[in-house]
Design goal:
With 554 residues, this protein is α+β, with helices and mostly antiparallel strands. The chain folds into 3 domains: 123 residues, no CATH class; 154 residues, GAF domain (Beta-Lactamase, 2-Layer Sandwich); 244 residues, Phosphatase 2c, domain 1 (4-Layer Sandwich), CATH 3.60.40.10. The chain has 13 helices and 16 strands. The chain has a 6-stranded antiparallel sheet. The radius of gyration is 41 Å and the shape is elongated.
């Protein structure tokens, strides 16, 4: 049961008042004592005893607590009454002694209660401060779990944080496999040998093993005097462990890990608050490590999927020079929802695709795979691009195959006719650069894919010539910038493309644009970036002064 700050302040005020009253009464009595000493010496002894008793009473209460203080006071009053009061009751001669006994009892009660209250308040304040410190440490552990995906790094950092918080000489994690347990990650103060790589302490003592299997913390105040663990004291001495507390972590009734804190050379009484803190720290760490393992597993699967989704074949035979750049926003993420594809439909036609699936991680990777493969199917089945996109959108929307939505640009380059027919499903405007360096935008021809089954997508066609460049990009590029008010924008991406006009290849131009995007982001991308560049090879008929132009829009 805890006390509020208001109640603690009230108690402190009562203590100060009590000490003030005691000081006043003691001073008054001392003056009276001095007066009685001058007038009648025989009245001094009991009054002197009353004043002198306050100091030892205060000492006893401070060392032994309120109960012992009141017991000492009661015994003193009883003994004083027994020896000083006559057997036939009080008389006028000993009324002064009776008054002194009453004074002794009242002032003694004030002393005992005041000291006990002050000690209790100090204890409550110390416990409150410990709780605050431990909550800060747990918050630090939670921040560490969010910022790191390396299980070993998480355990090592938590071991150091817990050891410093508990003022322990060492703190460690032990991990158990099918055979035995080993200490994996540890922090210890300077001058102590490391335990990392060695067996956990349950290997030395069966009692520890039994405690851990039951799920109870192992608490050893002093290995040299504890009868349960005394047989392993020699081993503990070699490891420089005098006192230890260990919290087991169970899975399906089996110990999978332990978190331990230890003192090297001196015994220690581990408080309930410290043990509770260690248990919470162990639970938080276990959750963080499991989350990190899950993230790494998901990242491995998603990375494999996404590597398979990036365009591999070149379109040399199709008359195009194609290059794709991809960059995740965060190093720890690696997997985003952006994807690109480039493939031949037949001898004359090639598809250029860039899309952005909402979300990240394994779910995004699986949805990219579904959209990519379904798109290939409908493009192979239909001559008209708009019909293909309408069929794909209807299936995705009616069957609820997407958890979010997809923005998608699909262009079909016809080598024989030197045309690019495209459909843009709510995607960023594509950029088409002519041989003279001018850039025009290919705007969206419909809404995002998979949102509305009845959406009808329009297709548009533009004539291209040798040296023309098509640049597709996701919103991570156009939205790059230090903040929302200073984003690169479509104009900025267009300017980068214009500046790259003299570069000889699609790879060189896309690299130039991607470097400009990262420079605009000032080293921190807020979203994934995917850029696809395609240059029509010079073998295609070129006309001086020619620029791409629309020939039809359905």
């Amino acid at each position: 049961m805890t006390s509020s700050p208001q109640s603690l302040k009230a108690r402190d005020f009562a203590v100060r008042v009590g000490w003030a009253v005691l000081l006043i009464v003691a001073t008054t009595e001392a003056l009276r004592l001095f007066q009685m000493w001058l007038i009648r010496v025989e009245n001094v002894p009991l009054r002197a005893f009353t004043i002198g008793f306050l100091l030892p009473l205060a000492f006893v209460t401070r060392r032994s607590g309120r109960r012992i203080g009141f017991l000492s006071l009661g015994l003193s009053v009883i003994l004083s009454a027994y020896f000083l009061m006559p057997p036939h009751g009080p008389t006028l001669e000993n009324i002064s002694d009776g008054a002194s006994l009453v004074f002794l009892m009242v002032t003694g009660c004030i002393v005992v209660q005041s000291i006990a209250t002050a000690d209790n308040n100090k204890r409550l304040r110390d416990e409150a401060q410990v709780r605050v410190n431990q909550e800060q440490v747990l918050a630090q552990i939670a921040r560490l779990a969010r910022s790191s995906t390396d299980p070993s790094d998480i355990r090592s950092s938590v071991a150091e944080i817990v050891a410093l918080s508990l003022k322990a000489d060492r703190c460690y994690f032990g991990l158990f496999d099918e055979e035995d347990g080993r200490i994996s990650d540890e922090w210890h103060r300077d001058g102590l040998p490391t335990l990392s790589g060695g067996p956990v302490l349950s290997a030395y003592n069966e009692a520890i093993r039994q405690y851990e299997v039951s799920g109870k913390p192992v608490i050893i105040q002093d290995v040299r005097t504890d009868p349960t663990f005394k047989q392993a004291s020699g081993t503990f001495d070699k490891l420089l462990i005098r006192s230890i507390v260990r919290v087991p972590m169970l899975s399906n009734g089996q110990v999978v890990a332990v978190l331990g804190a230890a003192m090297a050379n001196e015994p220690r009484v581990w408080t309930d608050t410290e043990i509770d803190f260690l248990e919470v720290a162990a639970a938080e760490t276990r959750a963080a490590v499991e989350s990190a393992h899950e993230f790494l597993r998901e990242k491995t699967i998603a990375s494999t999927l996404q590597r398979g989704l990036l365009p591999r074949p070149t379109l040399d035979d199709a008359g195009l020079d194609v290059y794709v750049f991809y960059k995740a926003a965060l190093e720890e993420a690696k997997i985003g929802g952006d994807f690109a594809d480039a493939f031949e439909l037949d001898a004359d036609r090639s598809a250029l695709v860039l899309g952005d699936v909402s979300g990240k991680g394994l779910l995004a990777a699986t949805q990219i795979a579904a959209v990519r493969n379904m798109l290939r199917y409908v493009l192979y089945q239909n001559e008209e691009l708009s019909n293909s996109m309408n069929a794909l959108n209807k299936v995705l929307a009616e069957r609820h195959l997407l958890s979010g939505f997809v923005t998608l640009f699909v262009g079909i380059y016809n080598r024989s006719h030197s045309t690019l027919t495209y459909v843009s499903c709510g995607h960023e405007p594509a950029l088409l650069q002519g041989s003279e360096g001018e850039v025009q935008r290919l705007m969206p021809t419909g809404m995002v894919l998979g949102a509305l089954a009845t959406e009808e997508y329009r297709q548009a066609t533009v004539i291209m010539s040798g040296g023309d460049t098509l640049l597709l990009y996701t919103d991570g590029a156009s939205e790059a910038g230090p903040d929302r008010r200073s984003q690169l924008g479509v104009d900025g991406v267009s300017a980068l493309l214009q500046s790259s006009a003299d570069l000889p290849s699609a790879k060189a131009r896309v690299t130039y644009v991607s470097n400009g995007v990262r420079a605009a982001a000032q080293g921190r991308l807020h979203d994934d970036v995917c850029i696809l560049g395609a240059i029509v090879k010079p073998s295609v008929l070129s006309v001086e002064g020619y620029s791409p132009r629309f020939v039809e829009q359905d």
